[in-house]
User: Which sequence fits this backbone?
């Protein structure tokens, strides 16, 4: 197993999940401040107000990353920290924060991978025109992206555009603020995705125009989908599921077209996006240099009868962390239905644990599109325990990551150019769906959902393990 010498090792976070300081130094609210305020009231999950308080601890955090041996760090920029109203004059204190962060990373030999947008649209734009529901957002995103790419472009080579369009379609009310009256209108999920495709293409073009050595790609939430059985009907169901959940996105990024099979399905059910003349030409012009992959779990599909008593459903959620409490599986009568994979164990939140899926998807995607790939998320959400001697023995995390890194190595051995491995997450942070008690980090943050305490940092066992992995360039996984 040979990771190339230039391979980048690090981890990821996103702005609203890690920074805190949600209203400090001139930052405007984002839609996640509002969504997570509701989560707190409804489910007792922490708000986005303090999270891991990285805004105040960033120097300490970068030092810890350097101690682990990181050569890269993927983070996102908060649009509403730079532009509190979404548009207009930039907020100098916000601009300065990301300069300080990038400078600290570079001083420690850590290459930044910057995500332009990770679920946190400025709330002002939601109030003004409905946010992602309105095409105006594409124009405002362009102005924001142009500013960011110009401002930080001399220090940042690697850019990812919009985090996980596929997941936004599935879980749209957690990722976008959608007023109740629109929540039954599923076509809007695909309309939002279309606007994001335009924004993505614009961002690709901006990086290519403004950053001489710049490389850009989307960060997609990706799950390979296997058929439940070898019955041809299940095989076809898995093909349909891959069309709609995977190729529908990747064909846009690499071919500039909507996947025909998926688009026909959406048209038949009144779900297809409205496309304005010129949109597809713009999408085609925005070429990607690589694809960033967020991989946690594979999916499984079976044939689904075309039964008029069934209706289209999108993915369910496990809110509690009790295995089996997932509220449902994506269903498209006559097309496919997702289901539990009987061959795989799951996390406490019902996400299938599938390291082979990592090798499978890297090889499959590379064969289809022949572009370099990077892993920008991968990891296990777990309830960690802080012992009385203030240690965290997270062997389950080490086991999960070890097998997934092994699978990345096997894909590299099979000829796939993988540029980086950035698991989720560098440090504990606010989960998008389950508060702070669902932890992912190498660095423990001592806080609870209801009490941010001092957000003290503590190295987990996985911290020391990953340090060894990095220093051996992936050869020592024990
Ligand atoms: C990815 C997101 O979907 O999964 C992250 O890009 C997110 O923002 C991660 O935190 C894990 O999901 P969750 O819901 O467990 O936080």
Assistant:
């Amino acid at each position: 197993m040979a990771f190339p010498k230039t391979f980048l090792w690090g981890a990821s976070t996103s702005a609203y999940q890690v920074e805190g300081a949600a209203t400090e130094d001139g930052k405007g609210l984002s839609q996640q401040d509002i969504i997570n305020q509701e989560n707190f009231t409804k489910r007792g999950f922490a708000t986005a107000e303090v999270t891991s308080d990285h805004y105040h601890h960033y120097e300490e955090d970068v030092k810890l990353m350097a101690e682990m041996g990181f050569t890269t760090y993927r983070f996102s920029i908060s649009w509403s920290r730079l532009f509190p109203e979404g548009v207009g004059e930039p907020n100098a204190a916000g601009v300065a924060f990301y300069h300080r962060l990038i400078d600290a990373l570079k001083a420690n030999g850590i290459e930044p991978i910057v995500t332009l947008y990770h679920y946190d649209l400025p709330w002002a734009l939601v109030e003004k025109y409905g946010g992602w529901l309105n095409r105006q957002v594409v124009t405002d995103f362009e102005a924001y992206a142009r500013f960011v790419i110009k401002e930080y472009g001399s220090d940042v080579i690697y850019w990812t555009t919009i985090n996980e369009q596929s997941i936004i379609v599935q879980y749209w009310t957690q990722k976008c603020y959608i007023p109740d009256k629109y929540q039954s209108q599923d076509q809007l999920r695909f309309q939002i995705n279309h606007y994001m495709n335009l924004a993505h293409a614009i961002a690709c073009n901006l990086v290519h125009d403004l950053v001489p050595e710049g490389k850009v790609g989307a960060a997609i939430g990706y799950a390979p989908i296997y058929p439940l059985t070898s019955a041809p009907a299940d095989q076809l169901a898995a093909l349909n599921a891959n069309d709609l959940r995977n190729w529908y996105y990747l064909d846009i990024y690499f071919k500039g077209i909507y996947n025909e099979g998926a688009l026909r399905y959406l048209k038949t059910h009144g779900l297809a996006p409205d496309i304005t003349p010129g949109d597809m030409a713009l999408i085609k012009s925005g070429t990607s240099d690589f694809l960033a992959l967020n991989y946690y779990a594979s999916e499984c599909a079976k044939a689904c009868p075309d039964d008029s008593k069934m209706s289209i459903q999108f993915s369910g959620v496990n809110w509690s962390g009790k295995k089996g409490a997932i509220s449902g599986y994506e269903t498209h009568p006559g097309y496919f239905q997702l289901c539990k994979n009987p061959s795989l164990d799951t996390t406490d939140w019902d996400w299938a644990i599938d390291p082979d899926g990592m090798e499978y998807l890297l090889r499959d995607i590379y064969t289809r599109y022949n572009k370099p790939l990077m892993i920008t998320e991968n990891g296990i959400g777990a309830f960690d325990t802080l012992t009385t001697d203030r240690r965290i023995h997270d062997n389950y995390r080490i086991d999960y990551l070890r097998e997934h890194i092994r699978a990345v190595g096997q894909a590299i051995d099979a000829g796939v150019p993988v540029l980086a491995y950035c698991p989720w997450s560098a440090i504990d942070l606010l989960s998008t769906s389950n508060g702070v008690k669902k932890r992912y980090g190498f660095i423990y943050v001592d806080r609870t959902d209801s009490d941010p305490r001092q957000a003290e940092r503590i190295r987990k066992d996985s911290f020391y393990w990953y340090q060894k992995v990095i220093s051996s360039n992936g050869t020592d996984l024990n």
The chain has a mean pLDDT of 97. The chain has 16 helices and 14 strands. Residues 14, 17, 163-164, 167, 221, 294, 377, 381, 424, 431-434, 438 surround 6-O-phosphono-beta-D-glucopyranose (CB under 6 Å). The domain at 8-294+353-471 is CATH 3.20.20.80 (TIM Barrel).
